[in-house]
Structures are given as structure tokens and as C-alpha cells.
Amino acid sequence: MAKNTYVLILAGGSGTRFWPLSRNVKPKQFLNLFDDEPLINKTVNRLEGLVPKENIFILTNELQKPSVLELLPDHPPENIFAEPAKRDTAPAVALGIGLIAARDPDAVMMVLPADQLINDTENYQKVMADAVRVADLTPSLVTVGIKPTWPSPSFGYIERGVEVPLDGVENTVRTVERFREKPAVKLAESFLAKGNFSWNAGMFIWSISTVRQELAQHCPQLAGFIDDLVTTEDLEAHVQAEFEKLEAISIDYALMESAETIYTIEATFDWDDVGSWVSVSKYLEKHGSNATNSPLVEEESSENIVYTESGKQVALLGVKDLIVVETGDAILVADRHEADAIKKIVGALPPELQ
């Protein structure tokens, strides 16, 4: 991998879907959901040998920055930045582009979420190395897609086009015909039947020069913000003054859906967005049809998810399809079919529990 390869890890976000274990100050990427290594640490560690730490930027928010510094004590602290306001992914990515462009205008950069579970580091690094090579060789934006395993209505989709042969690239590269918003189940089923659709994993790779040209054409506000960020003598003051003025919009809408040339590589590694307690249940111990991380006794109970921070004994009697989560200061009992709606109740809680 070339020395001018950089990474922007997006590590902000709220802590609502995994309440009460997650909170505003401690969202999913900071939790030990699977082992002793939080997702943000896994994200940084699987880049080892691919990109040097000094080239990895982490973007979070003021509330969560102390957690990032605590979890990554060996990471260069000057590479950990906090957004001054919540402005969705396009302004966040623009900030990252500006920070990297100020350091190396000839860089190729990856944009990666901090909260995805990937265990196959070997194939992950092969795919990302190929994506960087494609971005370096061509004036294109590159995205990594995930092979769908079921017609999920929760993900955006990438419609893949023709194959693009490139020297020195092991994985298959295809054009992107278009991005599709989160579909209804019937439409998602048709995508899977056609066979040329991938889930949009939110991983983007591009050269600084290419993405700045695309932003200048399609999103001049962000392009101007980056231009000023690269030339300013007081970076922190400029970000504090101008970031909040940027339109709150996702990078998909702002750029990817209108960019001139986009290529995609479909992942050959395992991937899980881990979007809810139902997703986590796949990695917990099985007790009949129940999933748990704690000692469990059950009688005539099925399809329940039990997660305790304390490891207390839990007993279930005559219940089905429940999510039961216990922490030191709160207990959640919810219908597992309403897992995505847990975030709706967080706003009604006392501020100290949000």
C-alpha cells in the first residue's frame, strides 16, 4: 500500500438502538458486544499493516471524543477530531477530506464506518487494497458493496453494471449503474432475483483530487469548505465557524448519486452492520431458541434475547419474542419485533439515562 493512503473513520452517531447498554456518550462502536474489543478498536486494528496509524483520522463528536481517546490510547491524538455540530455524513466526510488534503493533496483515502463487524481481515485487506488501486489508477469514486443474503429493507442498494478490467486488481470491478434507496421487501426481493445488486455498506474510496473535482461540480458548498480548510492558518477556528453552516445531508445524496464515474467491488469478506439487538443475538450463546450472554433458566419460553451487564441469573417463564437487557441503572423489556423502534423511547427517558 502506498504511503499516501489515508483513512477517515466515522465514529460519531447516537446510542439509541442498543439502549440501555448504549448511551449518547457510548454508542454501539464503543461497546464490548462480542468480546473484549469494541467495534472501533476492531476497525482500527484490521487496518494494521495496510495503513500506518499516523494516516488514520477518526472523526467523532465532542460528547464522544473522550471515549475515543480512552479506547485508543496509542492512536495519534492529533488525528482524532470532534465535529462541532451534527450535520450528517456529507459534511463529516468533507471535513475529513479537508484534513487529509491539507496534509497530502495527492492522497488516496478510504471512508469507513466505525461500527461494522468484520472478522476476515485477510480478505478485507485484499479488497481495500484493490479499491485503493482502482481509485489511484482511475478518475473514479469507488465503493465496496456487500453480497445480499436476504431481501433487507434496511439497507440501500448498489446496482452493478459492466465489468471493468484493470491491471493488478485481483477482485472484480464493475461500474455502478445507480444507487437505490432502502426498498420495500417486494422490491428488495426483485433486486436479489436479478443478481446484480449489492448492499451499500457506506465504504468509499477515492483520490483527493477526484473527490474534490466531483464536489466542485455537484456540491459547491462542501467544495468551498474544503478549499478554505486546506488554506486556512487556523484550522480549528475555521471548522468551529463554518461547519455548522453546512447543509445536513448524507454523502450518498450529496455526491454518490450524481457523481460522474463510480466503480464498485463486492466484498469477499464477512460483514455485519449489527443494527439491533436482534443482530447481536446471532453471536450470543443459544439456550434452546433463546439467545443470552448470562446464565439462563427457561420454561416454555422461546425466541427471547437476554443480555445482562452484570451476568446475573435470568429466569424466563412462558414468554416469547422478548428482548431483555439489564444494566446497572436500567432495564429494557421489549418485543423483539420492535427492536428498530427502541430508539423511539430513548427521548422520553431522563437525560441522565439517554
The CATH architecture of the largest domain is Alpha-Beta Complex
Strand content bin: 15-25%
What value does the Rg take, in angstroms? Answer: 21 Å
Query: What is the total number of structural domains?
Result: 2
- Sheet of most strands: 5 strands, mixed, barrel
- Along the chain, the helix and strand elements come as EHEHEHEHEEEHEHHHHEHEEEEEEEH
Average pLDDT reading: 95
Care to count the β-strands? 16
Keywords for this entry:
single chain, 354 residues, alpha/beta, Spore Coat Polysaccharide Biosynthesis Protein SpsA, Chain A, five-stranded mixed barrel, five-stranded mixed beta sheet, globular
Describe the model.
With 354 residues, the chain is of the alpha/beta class. The protein folds into 2 domains: 5-266, Alpha-Beta Complex (Spore Coat Polysaccharide Biosynthesis Protein SpsA, Chain A), CATH 3.90.550; 277-353, no CATH class. Helices cover 29% and strands 25% of the residues. The chain contains 11 helices and 16 strands. The strands form 3 sheets. Strands 5-8-6-7-9 form a 5-stranded mixed barrel. It has a 5-stranded mixed sheet with strand order 10-11-13-15-16. Strands 12-14 form a two-stranded parallel ribbon. Helix 7 packs antiparallel against helix 8 (235-242). The longest helix is centred in the middle third of the chain and has 17 residues, at 121-137. The mean pLDDT is 95.
Nutshell version of this structure?
By secondary structure, the protein is of the alpha/beta class. The protein has helices at residues 39-45, 65-71, 89-103, 121-137, 185-194, 208-218, 220-231, 235-242, 251-256, 277-281, 342-346; strands at residues 5-10, 56-61, 80-83, 108-113, 141-146, 157-163, 173-180, 197-207, 262-266, 285-287, 290-292, 296-299, 305-308, 314-317, 322-326, 331-335.
